Amino acid sequence: MSVLFQVKNSIGVVTIDRAAKLNALDLETFRKIEEIVDKANDDRAVRGLIFAAAPGRAFSAGADINDLTGLSPEEAGRRASYRRGVFQKIATADVPSIAVINGFAMGGGVELALACTFRFATRQATFSMPEINLGLLPGAGATQRLPRLIGMAKALEMMLTASKVAAEEALRCGLVDRIIEDVETEPLNFAVGWLPFSRSAIKGIIAAARGSELPMEEGLAREGEELAMLSASPDGIEGVAAFLEKRRPAFNQ
């Protein structure tokens, strides 16, 4: 299996397991990831996703180059569109996600991390965008997500020079959110912090926050739409009632 999946404390743990290929992301891996995200959206018992890699040197070396050779422009475009679509599913999933980067992340591996809600890295992690060495550009979302996350100049520096960014620098520039020592317990302990809250409210907050990439008026309109839906939802009604009755809410999740 190229991708393993198990649920721990209501958090789905997705493990890329292609150590012989430095966890490169081939089409089969993308299909497995897509299937897992779809299932997580449908299963209300799953409250979050953690993306990690089997122990070794790499979180992911990026796209499997064997999947990129001998393609017509049309087929290359279709495959790139599919990869972008899978990562967009992660970015817009009903549950938040954490990428746990231990070892090096290159190209598509960085793009997988960028699609997640949070990024945790060990001190051994390094990040790079080497596509320019192949005469290509990152095609699974980095040209859009990376500048939004770390600023245009730093994003272009990474993409135009293929330079490596160590964990401490990644933390300083905002590429990662925290540096961790334990790749299993720390992300899971963080994720279980979501469990007491309404799954619908978490989804609404993330959807509204994504509106910050829109012009202000459109973003505010999205915030209002999400709030209106939550206010009329079972969890929204229960939360207000519990506050007035001075008791803990019993969310349906």
Automatic annotation (TrEMBL):
| Keyword tags | Isomerase, Lyase
Any Gene Ontology biological process:
fatty acid beta-oxidation
Q: Which GO terms describe its molecular function?
A: isomerase activity; lyase activity
State the Pfam families in the record.
ECH_1
- What family does the database annotate? Belongs to the enoyl-CoA hydratase/isomerase family.
Official protein name in the record:
Enoyl-CoA hydratase/isomerase family protein
